[in-house]
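Fill in residues.
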């Protein structure tokens, strides 16, 4: 009998059989990865999505939205001619066709007119003043002078509606922010020079009445002459006695403040101021500054 045995205590001498149908290999346990994301990442993704959607909506609305018509204004004063050319897409401006905010001119001519002066404007348009925007542009290019009818505003809705129709037809107005009344003509004149100076870079600014026949070519020749003094006035000047008798036609209510004689002032159907003079007027804060004659 051998001293040592090579059998294990748990082993059995009886062979065992394994039924393949009843015995299957066990599968290892699989734990799926967690699908939960950190909260900051979710918030960031949501914000990015909202920003992207808002940008897309804004881009679509900007493409489909009609382009607004640029309006050339100085406060409530408006140059309807340049507003027309900018909105119609026509070429007007520098050599590249770009519109100029403050075009350089030899002179800017403001034809002072009123709501009751439709016949006068029609007479001018049938003679020397072009009756369409293209003709007005050709005249400006030929002479270096820009021409506009200058008119204020009215509280009368009917008058404003009629003016709007005329503006839409001719596009040759400068609308200024002042009430259109005869006794307020000094305020209108000052408002005109201020608006013209800010809308146009001209060497000279011309104020003219709407009952004159003007030769634009001769006016351009006059303005093109060299002058030694930069502070230039071209036109008539006037002074005279102050009427203090209430029975007289030209009775001056404030005659006691003026004195016996009016100071020297601009007078006549047309006069011209150089850019340096108009610049000083444009910077004036006192809108009651009166420097021309108004017959009452």
């Amino acid at each position: 009998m051998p001293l040592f045995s090579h059998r294990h205590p748990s082993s059995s001498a009886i062979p065992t059989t394994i039924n393949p149908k009843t015995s299957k290999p066990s599968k290892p346990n699989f734990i799926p990865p967690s699908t939960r994301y950190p909260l900051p990442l979710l918030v960031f993704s949501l914000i990015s999505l909202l920003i992207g959607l808002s940008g897309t909506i804004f881009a679509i609305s900007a493409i489909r939205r009609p382009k607004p018509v640029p309006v050339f204004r100085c406060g409530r004063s408006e140059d309807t001619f340049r507003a027309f050319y900018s909105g119609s897409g026509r070429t007007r401006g520098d050599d590249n066709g770009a519109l100029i905010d403050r075009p350089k001119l030899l002179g800017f001519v403001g034809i002072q007119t009123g709501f009751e002066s439709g016949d006068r404007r029609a007479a001018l348009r049938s003679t020397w003043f072009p009756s369409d925007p293209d003709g007005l542009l050709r005249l400006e290019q030929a002479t270096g002078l820009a021409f506009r009818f200058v008119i204020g505003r009215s509280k009368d809705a009917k008058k404003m509606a009629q003016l709007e129709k005329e503006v839409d037809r001719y596009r040759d107005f400068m609308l200024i922010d002042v009430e259109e009344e005869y006794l307020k003509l000094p305020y209108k004149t000052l408002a005109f020079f201020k608006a013209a100076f800010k809308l146009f870079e001209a060497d000279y600014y011309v104020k003219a009445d709407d009952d004159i026949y003007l030769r634009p070519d001769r006016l351009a020749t006059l303005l093109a002459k060299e002058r030694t003094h930069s502070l230039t006035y071209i036109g008539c000047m006037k002074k005279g006695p102050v009427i203090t008798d209430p029975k007289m036609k030209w009775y001056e209510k404030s005659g006691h403040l003026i004195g016996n004689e009016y100071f020297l002032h601009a007078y006549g159907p047309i006069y011209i101021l150089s850019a340096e003079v108009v610049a000083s007027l444009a910077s004036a804060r006192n809108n009651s500054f009166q420097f021309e004659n108004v017959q009452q």
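The first strand starts at residue 72 and ends at 74.
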